[in-house]
Design brief:
Structural class: alpha/beta
Number of strands: 17
Shape: flat
Helix content: 25-40%
Bound molecules: S-adenosyl-L-homocysteine
Mean pLDDT: 92
Largest sheet: 5 strands, parallel
């Protein structure tokens, strides 16, 4: 190891920046976040930097750097673009045993800035020891996506209770550690992250009491998670985080194997089916299974294709949980309409084509479809039909019969956002013929309206 990573408390302490331009300003912003008193020496000082320094209680000195300037400061930053000046600053600071950073010159520094994720009080810093900052930044981005944006709130929540818990658990190091590890893994931390601090506080007190009485009261929880239309990159950060905490995962046919594989490795995986009219588990049994698994203390992830609240029966599954007092969270997902539209270059609204969009289900009941056909006629509205592939003929005929022009463009997006995506384009009149004899796979989404005509211009062009 060439460096020792430390966290440096600079609150209300005097730091000196030599240099008055943009680079100096960037460093000043960091110092300011940490509450430092910022002093600046430079013949010319950027007004933003000057304002920041003055606001922090520091002094501005408008002239060239002198060696004497270093006295009284604990941290020196050289941020000029004149190499000999930077070298002198480094030399002088080292002679005085001060901490010094010269921007972009790791050889002149005895401290360097890491790439930072600031979720105060949680700080994550990544350093390449000054050798490859771009790599450090890339790693930081990877970490950033797996740390909840408001993880700092959880840090505060713990900090406020640390002393009390330690005292309650007789300062036993192992009990205290186990207590916090379990708490982090529980619905309490999820409540804090969801901003529901009152509930979290109540649950926390119950948990602490349970640990003290030796009757741990930790309950199971259900996460109803929208898994998006297929491409795993379309998962939300929150979905991924909860998937990686699951004890049990229930998923159905619409959720791609690549996504199921992203759940915690040793989580139990239960397929609950749902091919069209061939439900592997009837809805009632899925609802009951969620309740039973959560009551047994499991963290249950119910993965739904797309968004759980768009033709996803998410509402029904939640109702059962509420009746049994089981805590739950709902995570939105990218619905098939959004995914298919973007991946096939069909904007759902467009100033020149459509001012509104309507989502409907084309599910057939006893071979018929009961849609408000009259309301689907206006040109200015894009119509998106889920579960409509089998009823495509009926949809096209009914729309034409109710007055929609037969040459209205229509798109079928098959297995949207996956590597197997296919888009079939036609008009209400021609599309049944276009797909005749072709094998069109489920899931397929139907988009109707003049926005479909933009497909040829806006679709993603594969590089040659
Ligand atoms: N909750 C889901 C919809 C479930 S209904 C969502 O928000 O997307 C199932 C229907 O969604 C399918 O019949 C199909 O019309 C559509 N669908 C889901 N995923 C799709 C995909 N990857 N490509 C095309 N259509 C899809």
């Amino acid at each position: 190891m060439d460096y020792l990573p430390l966290c440096f408390k600079v609150k209300n302490r005097s730091c000196l920046i030599i240099g008055g331009g943009t680079i100096a300003y960037r460093k000043a912003v960091l110092l300011d976040k940490a509450g430092a008193k910022i002093n600046v020496v430079a013949p010319k000082i950027d007004p933003k930097l000057a304002a920041l320094a003055e606001q922090s209680g520091g002094v501005l000195t408008l002239r060239e750097y002198h060696s004497d300037d270093l006295h009284g400061h604990i941290f020196i930053i050289g941020a000029t673009d004149i190499e000999p000046v930077n070298e002198r600053v480094a030399h002088d600071a080292n002679a005085l045993g001060l901490l010094v950073n010269i921007v972009d010159s790791p050889d002149l520094c005895n401290v360097i800035f890491p790439a930072l994720i600031d979720r105060t009080p949680l700080l994550i810093s990544v350093s390449s020891s000054g050798s490859a900052p771009v790599l450090a930044r890339a790693i930081r981005s990877q970490i950033e996506s797996s740390v909840a944006a408001n993880i700092g709130e959880l840090g505060d929540f713990i900090a406020e209770r640390r002393t009390a818990v330690r005292a309650a658990l007789d300062n036993s190091e192992s009990r205290v550690r186990e207590f916090w590890e379990n708490m982090l893994d529980s619905e309490i931390s999820e409540r804090v992250l969801a901003g529901r601090n009152n509930e979290a506080d109540e649950l926390f007190n119950q948990y602490l009491q349970g640990v003290l009485d030796n009757s741990d009261t930790m309950k199971g929880e259900v996460y109803l998670v929208g898994a998006g239309p297929g491409d795993p990159d379309l998962l939300t950060f929150k979905a991924l985080r909860l998937m990686q905490r699951a004890d049990v995962v229930l998923y159905d046919r619409l959720v791609s194997p690549a996504i199921v594989d992203m759940t915690r490795r040793d989580a139990e995986r239960i397929y609950v089916g749902k091919a069209r009219s061939n439900h592997a588990l009837p809805q009632g049994e899925i609802n009951q299974l969620l309740i039973d698994l959560a009551k047994a203390g499991n963290k249950v992830v119910r993965l739904k294709g797309g968004d759980p609240f768009i033709f996803g029966r998410g509402g029904e599954e939640i109702e059962g949980l509420t009746e049994h007092g089981i805590p739950f969270q709902i995570v939105p997902g990218i619905s098939a309409a959004n995914g298919c539209a973007c991946y096939s270059g069909i904007p759902l609204t467009h100033r020149d084509h459509a001012q509104s969009v309507r989502f409907l289900t084309g599910h057939l009941k006893d071979g018929t479809m009961d849609l408000p056909w009259q309301e689907l006629i206006p040109d200015s509205q894009t119509v998106v039909i889920y579960m409509g592939l089998i009823g495509l003929d009926i949809i096209c005929k009914q729309l034409i019969a109710h007055g929609k022009p037969a040459d209205t463009p229509i798109a079928l997006v098959e297995r949207g956002t996956t590597p197997n995506q296919q888009t079939h384009i036609g008009t209400l009149e021609t599309i049944p013929g276009i797909i005749q004899g072709k094998e069109v796979h489920a899931p397929t989404l139907i988009i109707i309206g003049s926005v479909v005509s933009l497909h040829s211009r806006l679709q993603w062009l594969k590089p040659a």
